[in-house]
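Holo prediction. Input below; ligand is adenosine-5'-diphosphate.
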Amino acid sequence: MQAILVANPKGGCGKTTLATNLAGYLAGQNQRVMMWDLDRQKSSLDWLALRPANLPAITRLDAERDDVHPKIPESNDWLVLDSPAGMHGKNLAHALKLAHKVIVPVQPSVFDMAASRDFLDRLMEEKIVRKHKAFIGIIGMRVDPRTRAASTLEQFLKQYDLPVLTYLRDTMVYVNAAFNGKSIFDLPHYQAERDLEQWQPLIEWLKT
Ligand SMILES: Nc1ncnc2c1ncn2[C@@H]1O[C@H](COP(=O)(O)OP(=O)(O)O)[C@@H](O)[C@H]1O
Ligand SMILES: [Mg+2]
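Structure of the complex:
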């Protein structure tokens, strides 16, 4: 089983959007996927509750947020962890211990980058990351890669030697899909063509 943690201390940067779509993608690939929502707001679980029964199944892990040794059924292929804004300290360390991959959505604004700085500093200091036991992928969220904002983000990330895996555009496709408990991978192809394309580098990275 592989665990993927979606994290960034900034609220509203796209963690739940990424986590739910990631789970939707994996489920659509006939993978057994479980979600663990570490956020008190439980947005991922709300989404899961809306998910139509005829779509590829995603199960939920019912464990306390601070459970250090949650019982994860062995039959799973993937565990997707959604996390709350402001996660740090012990909670972050515990989540990292479980994770094989960490996905960090960052919006390219001054505010978002400033809020991500401490987190990325901390992340790079974690033993598990330094030893290359957990891999970090950055996603430029709600941004067009051809803009100045995108190059500013890349410039900011250079100090960490972290490449931007892909950019996901700002679109109601995500918002509308979520209303129905869907990911973009559950939509007719033509409705999310550009977005499915933008996910490709992230999907390739998952396989590494
Ligand atoms: N790429 C996107 N395009 C349009 N809206 C988005 C996108 N990513 C996130 N959103 C919206 O932004 C808001 C915050 O995103 P969310 O995923 O809940 O962030 P977080 O979990 O980090 O707080 C939500 O209303 C979500 O629908
Ligand atoms: Mg969230």
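The first strand starts at residue 2 and ends at 6. That is the main takeaway for now.
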